[in-house]
Amino acid sequence: MKMARKRLLIAIDGPSASGKSTIAKLLSRKLGYNYLDTGAMYRALAWKALQRNMKLNSEDELSQLARQSSFKFHQLGDDYRIMINGEDVSDKIRYPQVSEAASKISCFLGVRQALVKIQQEIGARGGLVAEGRDVCTTVFPEADFKFYLDASLTERAYRRYLELKESGIIASEEKVKEDIESRDKSDSQRTHSPLTRREDSIYIDTTDLTIEEVLNLTLDRIKFR
Ligand code: DC
Fold first, then answer.
1. What is the pTM of this model?
2. Ligand 1 atom with the shortest distance to the CA of 134
3. pLDDT, tens digit, for every residue of 43-62?
4. How many other C-beta atoms are found inside a 10 Å radius of the C-beta of residue 182?
């Protein structure tokens, strides 16, 4: 009788534009697993809050919004889409105003608890590559593999600038760098589940590496075990 191979849970954390989304998507395709972009959930919620003109410092209202929102994910070819309450917001959530709002609302414990619950339900079946700021530390501390991807601020700002330009969003490189720096600060200094590297996460500095090199490094680690 053929034994079914265990479907692994792979968690990737890292700061903005460290390459984690690119690598997580490629890894999930290589392994035939699902892909979970937890940042897109915080972004979708922030977008909803902005659309409703909600105050971004109102913890109770934002936590309630998080508990009442439903999220759906689907893949269209190489494109990963996210829906909040039935509305596809995948493109709208990439604007810099939404990035900033997502970072702000992600500080609230009630917001995090609601989204982490959904993320853990998705991860319970295994066969998942999840990426974010706290997937190794809080959401899936028992993941089969944990990675922390990093890169210099200059390199990350350049990558994000190119990404925005490609999607038709105009932004100066200097402003992108400032935004990333301020988001890094709030994401890593907040009280609840700040971005930190667990000691048992595999650290990869992607500054001078190609996408293929980073992908191979992660795959080597996974095959090695
Ligand atoms: O990964 P991203 O840039 O799309 O994430 C947007 C914001 O969401 C980020 O600034 C902080 C928050 N976030 C979080 O707090 N926890 C996660 N697991 C993922 C994102």
1. 0.94
2. 18
3. 999 999 999 999 999 999 99
4. 12
Domains and CATH numbers, the chain: 9-191+198-214 (3.40.50.300)
- Paired with 35 in beta bridges are 129
pLDDT for 67-110, tens place per residue?
999 999 999 888 999 999 999 999 999 998 999 999 999 999 99
Question: Residue whose CA is closest, atom 6 of ligand 1?
Answer: 39
**Which amino acid type is present at position 9?**
L
CA angle 12, 15, 21 (to 5 degrees): 50
Lining ligand 1 with CB less than 6 A are 16, 38-39, 42-43, 99, 102-103, 106, 132-135, 183, 187
Q: How far is the CA of 125 from the centre of ligand 1 (A)?
A: 23
DSSP string, 85-120: TTEE-TTGGGSHHHHHHHHHHTT-HHHHHHHHHHHH
Written as six digits, the tokens of 222 are 């996974």
User: What DSSP character marks residue 207?
Assistant: T
